[in-house]
């Protein structure tokens, strides 16, 4: 889970970011993230750990790449507020 979700995202985002910086055209890096980065639900601890790490990896390049006009964002379907998932 960590290797695919966390490390895979890092390698892809880094490669795309480098190309965007070299092109000097700016752009947007948009990643899909599950709401497990913010919520708790049964049986998702491994995914939640990886998604929380991904969320942190979005914030750092978002600040660092603002100057070359590159936006970095995560998108999700929203928080699950049912009884199965408790918002932190």
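Q: What amino acid sequence fits the structure above?
A:
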């Amino acid at each position: 889970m960590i290797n695919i979700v966390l490390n895979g995202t890092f390698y892809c985002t880094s490669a795309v970011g480098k190309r965007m910086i070299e092109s000097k055209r700016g752009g947007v890096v948009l990643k899909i993230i599950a709401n497990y980065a913010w919520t708790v639900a049964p049986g998702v601890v491994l995914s939640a750990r990886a998604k929380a790490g991904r969320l942190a990896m979005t914030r750092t390049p978002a600040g660092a790449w603002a100057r070359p006009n590159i936006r970095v964002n995560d998108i999700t379907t929203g928080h699950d507020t049912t009884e199965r998932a408790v918002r932190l």
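Q: And what stands out in the fold?
A: The longest helix spans residues 2-23.
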